[in-house]
Amino acid sequence: MGDAFKDVDVSRVIYLLLYLFLVIGGLSAVPVPRRKAKPPACPSCKAPVTGDTPVRGPWGGWTCARCGTEVEPPVAPTPRTGLRGWIDNHTWALFGAAWGLIIWGLVFARELWLHEPPPGWETFPLTVLAGFGIGWLLSLRRARG
């Protein structure tokens, strides 16, 4: 086995794997903001609905304790449009782009620090594809957990 890796610089593979695990670990720990519905409040007197507010019945909603007005249950927030809506639906692309930028930043930082030649520009599309794949895996992991 000693002759098999004679002409291969194994340190590059080790650095890349180390970068990969650091980035995946770091990106999986990044909190994702969730869009929440506004908390229910009385439309007349703007009093918030609390735990002791009387419930209207099995169909949902409450009766305001101050003025007696019916308070409807909160509705789900409307989906966003445009770029933000696309990002909400395709978080894997955002994670993949972040992964690709971090990997290329670390590769060029390694070039500046260790004076090692960087990989050729032809590897950039592979990094982007790998980034989208990693982002997709991270979004699947988030959906389960």
Characterization of the model:
With 145 residues, the chain is mostly helical. The chain folds into two domains: 13-34 and 79-144, no CATH class; 36-76, no CATH class. The protein is 50% helix and 3% strand. It is built from four helices and two strands; from the N terminus they run αββααα. Strands 1-2 form a two-stranded antiparallel ribbon. A hairpin with a 6-residue loop joins strand 1 and strand 2. The protein is rod-shaped and about 85 Å long. The model has no long low-confidence stretch (mean pLDDT 74).
The helix/strand series, from N terminus to C terminus, equals HEEHHH
How many strand elements? 2
The radius of gyration is 25 Å
Tell the overall outline.
rod-shaped
Distance between termini? 41 Å
Give the low-pLDDT segments: none
Instruction: Write down the domain tally.
Output: 2
Strand order of the largest sheet: 1-2
